[in-house]
Description:
321 residues; 12 helices
Amino acid sequence: MLDLLTSLGADAMATLAAGVSAAAGTAAVWLGLTERGPSARRARAIIDRRDDLRRKLRQPKRRGLMDGGVSLSKQVARRLKLLSGETAKQAQLKLNRAGVRSRDAVPVFLTVKLAAPLALGGVAALLTYGLDLWSLSSNGKLIASVGGVLFGFFAPDLYLKNAADKRRQRMSRALPDALDLMVICTEAGLNLDSALVRVAREIGANSSDLAEELELTAVELGFLSDRRQALENLEARTGIPAVGALVSTLAQAERYGTPLAQSLRVLAREMRDERLMKAEEKAARLPATLTVPMVTFILPSLFIVLIGPAILRTLDALSNL
């Protein structure tokens, strides 16, 4: 190669150098124009993640008769104007806390809540007045019908409340571990958005509910103009007091630049102490709770075993006399 270069003249070497320089300059300009900056890549990744998450959460999993029922519910809710006002907002909040985020959930829930009293009241009236299954009196039939209407009125809210309470308990059990992981991520140099995504990925196997909420919060932090609003949405969706303390800590760190890792570590320790205190409280209530079953079920059996033979012998002796 060296011999080849020495054999070339000065003009040829200059031409070759100019060609190499022109190719390198063209490649540099091309890469500069085509390669996106880190901010553009981050924005594109956030938008893609948001779209994927929304598609996964709102993907319809129904077919056949369910489509017709959902369409009918949407038409009824639209004609009765159930989707506007404070009732729809409260229903959306209840559904979010119960883990139901389908776009058709609100009209279906409001329609079911409207139709359930009529349906259950009609079924109760049919069974009592029409078929006369239990041979009740007129007052009994009236009470059964009214009871069916009341049960249909409260049943949807009770179902959502039960589902929300169970989900809240699952997230409360996993929250201290999530805070510990968040402390590790922030001490490793990750920002809040990346730390939430990483923690959600790690705790997804143990608590899918909390992982889902953290992923939604990370997505909202990326595209909402007010980052505090995203944190407040997390508190509203979960309804856990400990999450309210976490939101206050994160908002303070975002606004004033306070050390996030130390605040999260203190908060995680407080949550673990609170969980231990609740366990000790339940253990302290256990003797008083066991008193009623012991008196009701154990003591009568014990008395029968101890006093039963003596009573039988006494009855035999009296019968012989």
